[in-house]
Amino acid sequence: MANEDEVAAVQQSYGLVTLGWIHTHPVQSIFPSSADLHTHAGYQALLREAIAVVCAPHEGPDGFGVFRLTDSPGMGTILACRAEGASHPHPPLPLYTDVDQDGGHCEASDDLPFACIDLQ
């Protein structure tokens, strides 16, 4: 993985900004795990519109979801959570939402230009 300075330099040279993060669930379904919720809270605390993309390759080409924490109760609940360990339960509240579904603030499109810069 590239160091943060290298990532920042590449972003600056292309005029890019971090809008969220992407990761895989190789054997799990498409949902943000408790560890994912905590990771994403840091992104969303810096940018309200930040997204988390979860890819589940075993589910085929449509095996991905785009999520964000709900403003309330999601962000407050996760930021206040002090539970130990990567996987722990949270209250049964609407902590996150699919942002690429009806009414969300993201839209998937196959018609946009795409480039991948591998910093490994």
Automatic annotation (TrEMBL):
Name recorded for this polypeptide: MPN domain-containing protein
Going by the entry's taxonomy, the superkingdom of the source organism is recorded as: Eukaryota
Any one GO CC term of the record: endosome
- What are the MPN domain coordinates in residue numbering? 1-73
Q: Offer an example of a GO molecular function term for this protein.
A: K63-linked deubiquitinase activity
* Species: Rhodotorula taiwanensis
Q: Name the PANTHER family on file.
A: AMSH-LIKE PROTEASE, FI19924P1
Q: Which GO terms describe its biological process?
A: protein K63-linked deubiquitination
Q: Pfam family example for this protein?
A: JAB
